[in-house]
């Protein structure tokens, strides 16, 4: 725990029975049940507007919260402005070192790094740690954008640059803004959320020339098949939307797709 930690902001003053823990830039409140109360939770919490006292408190808190969100964007922009060509790697937080899935992530990070790309991940365990490890051991730039979660959270140790974010949506902006491609290895809800956010941004033309590569045909093909059989067949997507995704089997194929897209 650093002595340089910031004073809690007004919004961080713990309610009765809580203590504050610090994780880099993020301050985590621990309730009596030892559950962290995250900034995202505070932001999204519903308050009954018919309770005028609560409504006033929320209005004041949300006004200050805007400044905190703003400062998180500024910190991210400042820290990442010098990142050159980069690829963001998404994947499960749950794979363990030594497993085939973890080693796949290591290989992805290594190959991307050897191809000259900085590697950006969520900075946590599992596939994030694996991809950072591959990039770090290859001597490349290895960036981890961690997130405050309701349980204790550590940045993985294979980072040349690590940041803690309070807000998912701020962190997601950084994933896209500072990368020119996404590579996904197998993952769960978080990975799917990140994949579909990227797809939405490309599909709607918010970002251009942004390859999205999924590694692991056995894992990803059923999802793509469902998109073709249900979404396309039901006219919920267009045929060209399916072309936004490339499914491959190996890390090198993924790197080849990224390079072939001409992003640099
Ligand atoms: C559940 C575990 C750790 C959670 N820690 C995380 N740290 C950082 N980023 C995370 C974490 N969990 C999810 N993410 C983000 O979502 C993606 C992985 O989610 P999935 O549901 O596991 O697919 C990942 O890309 C992160 O950006 C283990 O103890």
Supply the key terms.
LOG; EC 3.2.2.n1; 9 helices; 2 domains; alpha/beta; 264 residues; binds ligand LYK5OOP5; hydrolase; disordered N terminus; Rossmann fold; 10 strands; 17% strand; 44% helix
User: What is the CA-atom radius of gyration, in angstroms?
Assistant: 20 Å
- Which molecules are bound in this entry? ligand LYK5OOP5
Which structural class is indicated by helix and strand composition?
alpha/beta
Number of helices: 9
The outline comes out as globular
Unreliable runs: 1-24
Order of helices and strands: EEEHHEHEHEEHEHEHHEH
Helix coverage percent of residues?
40-55%
* Span between termini: 41 Å
CATH architecture title of the largest domain: 3-Layer(aba) Sandwich
Largest sheet data = 7 strands, parallel
What's the number of domains? Answer: 2
Quaternary structure of the protein: single chain
Determine the strand fraction and express it as a percent band. 15-25%
Query: What's the total number of strands?
Result: 10
Largest beta sheet: strand ordering:
7-6-5-4-8-9-10
**Could you name the CATH topology of the largest domain?**
Rossmann fold
Overall pLDDT score: 88
CATH class of the largest domain: Alpha Beta
Keywords: Cytokinin biosynthesis, Hydrolase
Pfam family, one: Lysine_decarbox
InterPro entries: LOG, LOG_fam, LOG_family_nucleotidases
EC number: 3.2.2.n1
């Amino acid at each position: 725990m650093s002595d340089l930690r910031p004073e809690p902001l007004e919004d961080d003053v713990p309610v009765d029975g809580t203590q504050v823990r610090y994780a880099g830039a993020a301050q985590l409140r621990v309730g009596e049940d030892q559950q962290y109360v995250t900034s995202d939770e505070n932001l999204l919490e519903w308050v009954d507007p018919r309770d005028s006292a609560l409504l006033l408190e929320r209005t004041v808190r949300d006004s200050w919260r805007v400044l905190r969100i703003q400062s998180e964007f500024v910190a991210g922009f400042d820290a990442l402005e010098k990142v050159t060509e980069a690829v963001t790697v998404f994947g499960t937080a749950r794979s363990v070192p030594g497993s085939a899935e973890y080693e796949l992530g290591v290989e992805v990070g290594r190959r991307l790094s050897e191809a000259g790309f900085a590697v950006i991940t969520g900075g946590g365990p599992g596939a994030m740690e694996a991809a950072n490890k591959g990039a770090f051991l290859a001597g490349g730039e290895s960036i981890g954008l961690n997130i405050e979660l309701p349980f204790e959270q550590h940045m993985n140790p294979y980072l040349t640059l690590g940041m803690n974010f309070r807000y998912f949506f701020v962190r997601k902006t950084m994933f896209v803004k500072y990368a020119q491609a996404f590579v996904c290895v197998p993952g769960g809800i978080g990975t799917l959320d990140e994949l579909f956010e990227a797809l939405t941004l490309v599909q709607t033309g918010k970002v251009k020339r942004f390859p999205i590569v999924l590694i692991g045909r056995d894992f990803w093909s059923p999802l793509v098949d469902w998109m073709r059989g249900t979404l396309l067949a039901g006219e919920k997507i267009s045929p060209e939307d399916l072309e936004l995704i490339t499914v491959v089997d190996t890390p090198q194929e993924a790197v080849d797709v990224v390079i072939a897209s001409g992003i640099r």
